[in-house]
Amino acid sequence: MADYHAVDRGILVKKGEPLRIHIATDHAGMELSAFLVAELTALGHELIDHGPKVYDALDDYPGFCIAAAQAVISDQESGIEALGIVLGGSGNGEQIAANKVKGIRAALIWNSETAALARDHNSANVAAVGARQHSHEEVLELIKIFIGTGFSNDERHVRRIGKISHFEKTGEVLY
After folding, report:
1. Binning pLDDT at 50, 70 and 90, where does residue 45 land?
2. How far, in Å, CA of 141 to CA of 115, rounded?
3. Whether the Cβ atoms of residue 86 and residue 95 lie closer than 8 Å to each other
4. Could you give the number of structural domains in the chain?
């Protein structure tokens, strides 16, 4: 298994084969975003940067993060295994924006355990990280854990995600 990346729905992609990763930020995460694009590309992944392209201290993250989240869903619906990364000062607003896209399960990750559990228990398809909360190297390690952890397919987690999806589609709450 060391030769594989675990991706959504328990599917394994052989290491060396690129994962498509959509990334977005605001001004607070631009340096980190550029670092992650370079590092993850060097590891063989395909990074698609949804912006911003130039620094603007007054920019607004929702458009960038929503675009990245929409691209993750579009790829997944096309049968392409894709994940997303959204960055900001804290990662909170970026996570909220990404989670407005139907089918996105964005998780705020701040340590190795939350990075792994986001995928293992919640089948998260977008990682949200606070650029002002960690060093570049720490974030790279968190993202490697996120990318490298697959969904457990444990019945209780499948059931819970199913209830979230049901609400998303119908507006009906299941207990």
Report:
1. very high
2. 9
3. yes
4. 1
**Alpha-carbon span 154 to 175, nearest angstrom:** 18
Q: Which tens digit of pLDDT belongs to each residue from 73-85?
A: 999 999 999 999 9
Instruction: Look at residue 21 and tell me if it is in a domain.
Output: yes
Interatomic CA distance for residues 23 and 38, integer angstroms: 12
Report the run of H or E that residue 155 belongs to, with start and end: helix 155-170
Alpha carbon distance 105, 161 (integer Å): 9
pTM of the model: 0.90
Q: Locate tokens 């694009």: which residue?
A: 37
- pLDDT tens-digit profile of 51-63? 999 999 999 999 9
Which residues does 47 contact at the CB level (< 8 Å), separation at least 6? 21, 23, 36, 37, 40, 41
Residue 56 lies in domain: 4-170
The residues carrying an active-site annotation are 94, 121
If residue 134 lies in a helix (H) or strand (E), which one and from where to where?
none
| Peptide bond connecting 52 to the previous residue in cis, omega within 30 degrees of 0 | yes
Between CA 40 and CA 31 the distance in angstroms is 14
